[in-house]
Amino acid sequence: MLYQRWLNVAQARAHEIALWDLVAGKRWTFRELEAEADRLSDLPPPVIHPQGAGSAFIIEVLRAWKSGAICCPIEAGQTPPPLKKLPANIAHLKLTSATTGTPRLVTFTGEQLAADVYNIVSTMGLQPDWPNLGVLSLAHSYGFSNLVTPLLLCGIPLALLDSPLPEALRRAADFSPAITLPAVPAMWRAWHEAGVIPPNIRVAISAGAPLPLALERAVFDRTGLKLHNFYGATECGGIAYDSTSEPRADPACVGSAMHNVALCVNEDGCLEVRSAAVGTAYWPEPDPVLAPGCYRTSDLAELNNGLVFLRGRASDLINLAGRKASPDAIERVLLGHECVRECLVFGALSGNSSRGEFIVACVVVQAGVTEETLKQFLLARLPAWQVPREWKFVESLAPNARGKLSRTEWRARLGYA
Length: 417
What we know:
Layout: H1 2-12, E1 17-21, E2 26-29, H2 30-38, E3 47-48, H3 55-67, E4 70-71, E5 92-95, E6 105-108, H4 110-124, E7 132-134, H5 141-154, E8 158-160, H6 166-172, E9 179-183, H7 185-194, E10 201-206, H8 213-223, E11 227-233, E12 237-241, E13 253-257, E14 262-265, E15 270-274, E16 281-283, E17 290-291, E18 294-304, E19 307-313, E20 318-320, E21 323-325, H9 327-334, E22 340-349, E23 357-365, H10 371-379, E24 390-393, H11 407-413
Parallel strand pairs: 1-8, 3-4, 7-8, 9-10, 10-11, 23-24
Antiparallel strand pairs: 1-2, 5-6, 6-16, 11-12, 12-13, 13-19, 14-15, 15-18, 17-18, 18-19, 20-21, 22-23
């Protein structure tokens, strides 16, 4: 099904440029890319693992689609997960980003994978005249659904760049008069501070981590470019998108529901997502939170006037002697301080088990900012019991290759596990 849809796209746009490899200086028309796929072996292994940031990744995806193999993208150098006795009728496997624990595999049919990209292209207004500039991991759900499937199933051309560094972006961005640029907040911050955000961006997308209001506003004030916040999950693809033309007023707002996606808040206060793009199940161990057509997230949320407001994760809530604190809420306030560049808040177990946890703040700040300065800033805006007890000043909170910050990873890294 997926390969036939690709052939329809390739034949309809045969002589147009489909793919640029900006590092190698090569490009392919849709017809040339189709010819590359036609030369592929018809006898691949039952599971194909595209990896890397180059054109070979795209070719391997087509190889899987053409032969009916299962496609399971992995990061460059990553060991493929052990896969035995996979369920029938599965076309794609995604690895979760492990922000809440151990990575898990999610199974998808071809129809589910296609439903997500159609929702994304429709909601974001992506156009073939505005090629995607690919600086994201192609293996991660965000990169795969915003770069790879728009190319192969919707004819949105893709230019691949192997580095998100500011100078690389500055040199590469003029490959087309108009471009679409999906990225993560850390990239947008680096590009903004280096003054290299290209003037030819037509759609600027930020996902993978919360987009600070201060950054969104600063980019808008300097360039007039609106960063569109995009919220999704590996299990169900796109959930909400901020399609407005001016910066948000509330950092908790992540936009409104994607096209063809229905949202509600369940009895636990968590967001539930219903759409044709929701994956089939976790593998090898199913979980009732994920079933075809419905994904029950762990994100605490409010729905108001068609907008989605995230209030933290149920699993991340910090137990403070019976009171619950949301690390997301504390982070949003901290990011309001002009000298705080990045922050991550989590709970750590107290030596006195009856007291539950205490709050730790891990921050990246400008020179001269002290713990006392940040404490006083929070005390003016939050109840005293929500002010972190311990502070860790670090040089960077750079996300992993999937654009994620994991509280679990940082808790262990700093010796609180």
